Amino acid sequence: MKNFSFKEMWQWKNITLSIQHLLAMYAGAVVVPILIAGAWKLNATQTAYMVAADIAICGLATLLQVYRGRVIGIGLPVVLASTFTGVAPMIQIGSTHGPGVAFGSLLVAGIIMLFLAPAFAKLNRLFPPLVTRLVVALIGITLIPVAITNWAGGDGAADFGSLQNLIVGFITLVIILIIYRFTKGFVQSISTLIGMVTGTICAAFLGMVDLSALQSASWFQLPMPFALATPEVDFGSVITLTVVGIVTFIEATGNYFGLLEDDERLSEGDLRRGYLSVGLSFILAGLFNTTPQTAFSQNLGVIKVSGVRKREVIANLVVIMLLLGFVPKLGVLATMIPKPVLGGAMVFLFGNVLAFGIGELGSMSLSDDDSMIIAASIAVGLGVAVMPEAFSNLPAWLSWITTSGTVAGTIVAVLLNLFFNGLSEKS
Asked: pTM for the whole thing?
């Protein structure tokens, strides 16, 4: 597989598609360091650094995936950004032991992940077509609640579920659908971008766009190693964050397979390079004092909608994310998109991922056993996504399974496939 063309990167159509990817993932990426910094009671300067460093590391981590090297990089248009799975552990570790322990333990967990990556890659036989296509459907269906929450205004919003929020999200979704239905080619491929920009303009007229953060943001900031805290290590914290890393391996696996064409397959070497890149992203996050990364399903949705799978588009996105990380004033612009606008776009994106997964499953000749695997996996995955508090009393060593509906559903799918089909060629 050849690497991406630098000449093709700078074509204006590819740059426009890159901006669409940015708007789809940016708010979800930066909210993670904001939540963690708030829980740790960091001051405004420290929080601004953590957010800017986070988006810069997202860019570097994505580059590690999209560039196919001999040792690292799966060579697929995968976007890495902050994982919500790491929010609770990072908050707990930082609040109990201090941010230095959280960052130091994250760095060590990343090193451990480098050693785990080759072993995890050998498990690719556990992901036959039935399981991989089911995982893609799980990614879509378990993220729909996230989309609806944003549509209503976002978690904890004072106006959650207000008529204004619902109307703005609805307008965004309708515009996307109209553009997608009545246009072709490039315009159709950027329907999400057009919808989000139009939705944001409508929201601005309703007073839903806050410009205050733009005025206070600095013009330049260079991420530096250990800028917020001197690294320290706690054994229990390392184990906790290593488990977070294993969860990101599972999430990445679903995205990898979701990006493949019908005739493509992933080898053990491909998966190993991909997982090594995820491990390196944890090391970078610990080194530069920001948050752990995972493969972002929002961007899988953008690719399914646009039909454009060029790595040049994601390479452009890397450049943009690095620029935003170094120039916080520019980075703030993308955070101004109101949550209802994001929610309306997410419904479209995640719905398309779900539809793609269901379509791929429908193209298979399914037995009764296969149908049982699909039913149980989706039920568990959706249950965890909709009502995670139902599993709050699980012991700590088991609770990681329910940190994500995708992870829970995937584990059920793998285990049931082994139970019904084993490791036979049929499976």
From this structure: 0.76
